[in-house]
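For the sake of transparency, this paper describes our internal protein records without simplification. An entry from our holdings is shown next, in its original layout:
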Amino acid sequence: MVREYKCSITSAPGRNKVISMQEILKEQLQESISTMQAVLSDETVADAVVCAAHTIADAMKRGNKLMVAGNGGSAADSQHLVAEFVSRLTVDRPALPAIALTTDTSILTAIGNDYSYENVFERQIEAIGKPGDVFLGISTSGNAKNILKALRLCPRMSISTVGYIGNEGGAMKPLCDISVVVPSKVTMHIQECQLALEHILCMMIERLYFGPDFGKLPQEISE
């Protein structure tokens, strides 16, 4: 038997409103769906993702790579997205060149200690970035200082820039060649939409890189 657990929250001074955990779950799911619907209805998001896909696919066809970075949950998203490129999304195919700048603890701690945490991505791009590469910065606020420093370096190295951003774009938006802005200021809902848009970005790049018939191949569930 499923028990209905309830919690008490204060809705106003001197008053308690009792709501169930099930109601909290449904409320949060509805907010997630509403944010997804806002993304779906925003043509600027669709246009930006398509433009980013073409930019990254063209770079990979030239022998260049994608570099991705973010902080916290956005760091996890960076690694998740890169894993889809290097391993696969849903269809077996050759690996695609992408690297997450969030994974090497020796590099991250050395730069953070010797310079500043604001330099952890900029310094890596300086080391391994090449003209024609693409840098994708992920941030829910659009104001991550280490992402901003990386974005400022990229034009000097002829590296294209893409931003996956919330919060109306923050300080990142004017620094990005292409900005995919989720219309929300709620961190978790921005991240939920960004993950969906990251999967779609990878799928688009696969089809641009391997041809439109790639989407007709049988899909497999990863372990």
